[in-house]
Amino acid sequence: MKVLSLTLFLLLLMTVSCNMKSDGYSSHSSGLKYKFIETNPSGKSPKIGDIVVLSVKYLSEEDKLIDESDFYRMQVSIPAYQGDINNGLQMLQVGDSVCFKLQAIDFYEKTRKRDLPKELQQGDPIFVYLRLKNIISAKSLETERRGYYHTDEKQEIQLLKEYIERTNTTVEPSESGLYVVHKSEGIGLTPVAGQTLTVHYTGKTVDGKIFDTSLERGRPLKFVIGRGEVIKGWDEGFMQIKKGGKARFIIPSKLAYADKGNGNKILPYSSLIFDVELIDIQ
C-alpha cells in the first residue's frame, strides 16, 4: 500500500507540475515549450524513424483531462512546423518524463491528423505530459510486435483505438464491437442466412500489413452466410451490405481469431481490417 500511495502521489505531483502555467518552462530553438519532470541520463534517445512507446496524458489549460493512454506509440518524424512535438521527442531518453506546452490546433491537425477536440478552441494551448517507456527501431518493429503487442486484450484495445483515431473513423461499433464503414451503397436487399455470397476482399492488420487478398489471386471467394463458414465479423458485416456494395470491416479479435491467431500471419489478439466488395448474392 505504501508503494501504491507513493506512486499515486508522484503521478499527482507530476501532473500538477506539468500544468503550472507561469514558470519552469524552457524553450527549444523551434519554439517548443517543455519542462522536464524526471530524467534518466543513462537512457537511450530516439532518432527520426524510430517508434517510441509512451504513457501520455493530454490536459487543457483548466486541467481537464482530454485523453490518456498508458500504451501509445508513434513514429518520430522530421518536424513539420515550428514547435512540433517531434522536436521534443528527440530530446528525450528512455525513462524521462516531461511536459510539453503546445498549440492545440497545430498538435491535433498537423501532428495527430484529426479535428480539434470539442473541449478545446482555436488558440488554446494543450499540455502533454508523457513518459518515454521504450524505443523500437523500425528495423526491429516486426520482432517487437510479435513479442509484446499481442499478449492480451487490453493491448489489442489500445492498438485498435489508435487505428480508429489515425484513420478518422467516425462510425459507431455495433453491440458486438464490429465497425462497418460503407464505401459504396449497392442495390437491392441485404443477404440473409443461407444465401451464397461471392466477394472480393483484402485483409490487413491494424498496422497496415496485408495478410490475404482475393484480388491478387484474381478469383473471388464464395461462402454461405450465417453458417459459420467464415469468421463472425464477416457473417455479421456482410448482412449489412447490398449487392455491388463496398465497405470496410474493422473486426476485433473476439469476432475473428481471438487468442489463438491464425498461423504466422495473424497473431493472437489481432484486430483485422477488411476492405470488401459484395459481388453477388444467390
Keywords:
single chain, 282 residues, alpha+beta, Chitinase A, domain 3, 2 domains, six-stranded antiparallel β-sheet, 12 strands, 23% helix, 31% strand, elongated, disordered N terminus
β-strand number: 12
Number of helical stretches of at least 4 residues: 7
Strand content: 25-35%
| Termini separation | 63 Å
- Helix content range: 10-25%
Q: Runs with pLDDT <50, length 5+?
A: 1-17
Whole-angstrom Rg: 22 Å
Given helix and strand content, the structural type is alpha+beta
Order of helices and strands: HEEEEHEHEHHEEEHEHEE
Strand order of the largest sheet: 1-2-5-6-3-4
Q: Summarize the biggest pleated sheet.
A: 6 strands, antiparallel
Shape, per Cα inertia axes? elongated
Oligomer: single chain
Average pLDDT value?
A: 87
What's the CATH architecture of the largest domain?
A: Roll
CATH fold title of the largest domain: Chitinase A, domain 3
Would you mind describing this structure in some detail?
This protein has 282 residues and is α+β, with helices and mostly antiparallel strands. It folds into 2 domains: 137 residues, Chitinase A, domain 3, CATH 3.10.50.40; 120 residues, Chitinase A, domain 3 (Roll). It is 23% helix and 31% strand. It has 7 helices and 12 strands. The chain has a 6-stranded antiparallel β-sheet with strand order 1-2-5-6-3-4. Strands 7, 8, 9, 10, 11 and 12 form a 6-stranded antiparallel β-sheet that branches. β3 and β4 form a beta hairpin. The chain is elongated, with a radius of gyration of 22 Å. The N terminus is likely disordered.
